[in-house]
Design a protein that fits this description.
The protein has about 325 residues and is α+β, with helices and mostly antiparallel strands. The chain is built from 5 helices and 17 strands. The chain starts with a strand and ends in an 11-residue tail after the last strand. Pyrrole-2-carboxylate binds next to helix 3 and helix 5.
């Protein structure tokens, strides 16, 4: 029997899963992470579906392909992907990657640089096991953008970049609580569709493929706000979303509600928390740092058996 083996290490960050491919992946050649991401899209689409779809994975799983970095300052390069395709940035995934590299014995506590398709990011693995990720420059691009959300009506929100493009909504839509998952999902998917209908894109022409809804914290002693984040592919982020928190921090700073160094505690739909702060740059941009915790929870050899009709996943 001709069986290929792909080695993966699984983790979750504040509830959101990351499956890091550490061995057996197809050779994508050399280049920066944008080149490798494009080649991954063209040539290794099967790897994404094999790892993340049933029967081995599930729709909410995020994958991360460990790559050789171009810049020797970096400990690793990475390409993130999910059920819909490749992702731009992914901070929960970076926290998972850092804990995975520690598990593999490749790094220990301290500062590590990671190459991603959206730029180099810095991660600090702390002695208490938490991870702080210093993200790419983030900014609010548009404020008070009005859209007509089918079945819900007029909604106002901001468009911001935090390593992915987000539409940030506050004061509209269902209450942020776990029992409202279906309503929150339908509302945010309808908002994403409305953005396309209204021709609202990022400043680089990209689709706004994440919608983030905010509400008051469930417990104001523990967090400053709660969120629900819808990702491309129709699955919600189980964590408070690191790139989404970065976009939020940029909006807060631009509207004078967050000073440099002031801590913002963002709770996600499961009640898990990321802490964030900003360092201002010129042009109203900021460098966000987002901190959270991830746990390695699996180490597996994925078998690709040519006789298995579902070797590349179902669907
Ligand atoms: O934490 O940045 C994040 C993220 C993006 C998509 C899912 N998680």
């Amino acid at each position: 029997m001709d069986t290929n083996k792909i080695k993966v290490i699984d983790s979750h960050t504040a509830g959101e899963p990351t499956r890091v491919v550490v061995g057996g992946a197809p050779d994508l050649g050399t280049g920066n992470m944008t080149d490798l991401r494009d080649r991954f899209e063209e040539k290794a689409h099967w790897l994404r579906t094999a790892l993340l779809s049933e029967p081995r994975g599930f729709k909410a799983m995020v994958g991360a392909l460990l790559c050789e970095p171009v810049d020797t300052k970096c400990v690793a390069g990475v390409i993130f992907f999910n059920n819909s395709g490749v992702l731009k940035g992914c901070i929960h995934g970076t926290m998972g990657l850092i804990k995975t590299l520690e598990f593999m014995g490749r790094i220990s506590t301290g500062t590590h640089y990671i190459e991603t398709p959206v730029g180099m990011i810095k991660a600090e693995l702390k002695p208490d096991g938490s991870v702080s990720v210093t993200n790419v420059p983030s900014y609010r691009y548009l404020s008070n953008v009005e859209i007509e959300v089918k079945g819900f009506g007029k909604v106002l929100g901001d468009v911001a970049w935090g390593g992915n493009w987000f539409y940030l909504i506050e004061g509209y839509g269902p209450e942020i609580k776990l029992s409202n998952l279906n309503e929150l999902s339908s509302f945010s998917i309808a908002a994403m569709e409305a953005l396309e209908v209204a021709n609202v894109f990022g400043d680089d022409g990209s689709k706004i493929d994440h919608v983030e809804i905010f509400g008051p914290p469930a417990d104001s002693l523990k967090s400053d706000s709660s969120n629900f984040v819808m990702c491309p592919g129709g699955e919600y982020d189980r964590s408070p979303c690191g790139t989404g928190t970065s976009a939020k921090l940029a909006c807060l700073h631009t509207s004078g509600k967050l000073k440099p160094g002031q801590i913002w505690r963002q709770s996600g739909i499961l009640g898990t928390i990321f802490e964030g702060e900003v360092e201002p740059l010129e042009d109203q941009k900021v460098i966000p740092t987002v901190s959270g915790r991830a746990w390695v929870n699996g180490e597996t050899n994925i078998m690709i058996d040519p006789s298995d009709p579902f070797r590349f996943g179902i669907g």
